[in-house]
Write a structure and sequence with these properties.
Length: 278
């Protein structure tokens, strides 16, 4: 069975998503019910909701909405990775509120859509350090050339666990491995970083095959090792590259030859440990 660590739900009637206007292919509602109908067929048993970069005024409303959905009978929603703004002075108060809610398992601040100096600011870095001792995980989403910026954050807080989303967002469509490959090897040297094997079908172009994905997925797993990788769908972004069922099938093909223990660590047990799901 699979724990999906990267589900986005979109409800434009309740929340605002400024960035969606620039991505017409997914500029619609994507409900839990639509996701769950497919996810249950491919073996997903539990799922973490990943923040969807809503309007900053809607951040806490997004978490509350997902938590409400998790209370429905039979819901697979096991927790939320909430949005945050560490660059703002009100982050400590926000952190205190989220720490009081066991449904919140971690945070993410989308960094590839803001200037690099956002994550280099003193306040941002000081607030990242505030995660020390909380048990909350911080997801990083950056482009390959920005991975050194992520490394700088990781090194500032060695007792905070970080997760690098989407195999470091390689440019698979162009077949580019530089500087992605070297940067992935370097960030993987930090024991407080895990990698999320997620959503890469969206970066692969329309004619991708399993062999198109293989160098990127295998290098990620090889660099981080089986104890520091987790799996995510990145639904509905993965629909740009074939959809949830296609990505699950590709993942299973990529795991051909792996042992049951290795498969379980990637698809389930590492996520249980990392986000405290038991």
């Amino acid at each position: 069975m699979i724990i999906d660590t990267h589900l986005h739900l979109i409800d434009r009637s309740a929340l605002r998503y400024p960035w969606l206007a620039g991505v017409p292919a997914i500029n619609r509602d994507f409900s839990y019910e639509e996701y769950a109908a497919e996810a249950k067929r491919v073996g997903v048993e539990r799922v973490l909701h990943m923040e969807v970069d809503v309007d900053p005024a809607d951040i806490e409303a997004e978490t509350a909405r997902v938590e409400s959905q998790s209370r429905q009978p039979g819901s697979m929603l096991a927790g939320a990775i909430a949005s945050c703004r560490p660059e703002e002075a009100n982050f400590p108060a926000y952190l205190d509120r989220q720490r009081a809610n066991p449904f919140v398992k971690g945070f993410r601040r989308v960094l590839h859509v803001v200037p690099d100096d956002v994550s280099e600011g003193g306040l941002f870095r000081e607030n990242i350090k505030r995660l020390s001792g909380t048990g909350l995980v911080f997801d990083l989403v950056v482009l390959p050339h920005q991975i050194p910026k992520a490394i700088a954050l990781v090194d500032l807080a060695p007792d905070v666990m970080f997760v690098l989303d989407h195999c470091g967002v390689p440019d698979i469509k162009s077949g580019a491995e530089h500087p992605w490959r070297a940067h992935m090897s370097e960030i993987a040297r930090r024991p407080n970083v895990a990698a999320k094997v997620s959503g890469v079908v969206a970066y692969a172009g329309p004619d991708w095959t399993v062999e198109t994905l293989r160098p990127y997925v295998e290098h990620t797993i090889g660099a981080f090792g089986w104890d520091r990788v987790v799996w995510g769908s990145d639904w509905p972004v993965c629909t740009l590259g074939g959809g949830l069922s296609t990505w699950v099938a590709a993942t299973q093909a990529l795991l051909t030859g792996c042992g049951d223990s290795e498969r379980d660590r990637l698809l389930r047990s590492n996520a249980v440990k990392l986000w405290r799901l038991e």
